[in-house]
Amino acid sequence: MAEKGAKHLTFMTRSGARTEEARKALEDIESLGCGAHLLQCDVGDLGAVEAAMASMTRPLHGIIHAAMALKVIEARSNIHQLLTSH
Hints:
Blueprint: E1 8-13, H1 20-30, E2 35-40, H2 46-55, H3 72-85
Parallel strand pairs: 1-2
């Protein structure tokens, strides 16, 4: 998405930017001229998703759910619930 002109991307992960791999991925995205932010959040936890979305400083224009989670249905439900209520 950054290569196609996205200016700002926000990612939600359970581990946040704790790993060198995550920090390197953010650096790579930013080197393309795209702001990259990583929020620590378990999308299977509605309260965590609400808090993460409330902390976002830019408008939300889309979501790509690409988690490899056992709680995929719960995560999708949480995201859908929050998007349709705002």
